[in-house]
Design brief:
Number of strands: 4
Strand content: 5-15%
Number of domains: 1
Order of helices and strands: HEHHEHHEHHE
CATH topology: Rossmann fold
Structural class: mainly alpha
Shape: globular
Radius of gyration: 15 Å
Largest sheet: 2 strands, parallel
Distance between the termini: 18 Å
Helix content: 40-55%
CATH superfamily: 5'-nuclease
Number of helices: 7
Strand order of the largest sheet: 1-2
Length: 128
């Protein structure tokens, strides 16, 4: 959402895939975006625009399978020495994993989880 147009570092194949995808988000994604907007003092008009854009995404509700996957993922990350992950990053990754959906992220911390997830992680690197 903050990248218009997408960074040059995205390959053409990734650009096509992101453009064609059904975008799904978690309540944790909504909360992080809202928090960032409030913290940055964007103002109500800009916050409303961003929240409308998020409403265009499929919202995946939290359920027991995601809770179980979060716990499994947290334990595996700790055992594998993968640290520095926020709880929200883990909730987002656990949601994708529990639903067997690819995790598309610009967060390099989440990209480090790929070996633990059993799903594809598509990392969208920032411009150099």
């Amino acid at each position: 959402m903050r990248r218009q147009p997408p960074p040059a570092s995205w390959t053409p194949a990734v650009r096509r895939r992101v453009d064609a995808a059904i975008r799904a988000i978690t309540p944790f994604t909504q909360a992080e975006v809202r928090y960032g907007a409030i913290k940055a003092d964007w103002g109500e008009r800009r916050i409303t625009e961003v929240m409308r854009a998020l409403e265009a995404c499929l919202l995946i509700p939290l359920d027991p399978s995601i809770v179980e996957e979060w716990a499994r993922l947290r334990a595996r990350a700790e055992s594998a020495g993968v640290g520095g992950l926020s709880d929200n990053d883990l909730w987002i990754a656990a949601t994708a994993s529990a639903r067997l959906l690819p995790l598309v992220t610009a967060d390099q911390d989440q990209a480090r989880l790929e070996p633990l997830l059993g799903i594809e992680v598509v990392w969208l690197p920032p411009d150099p």
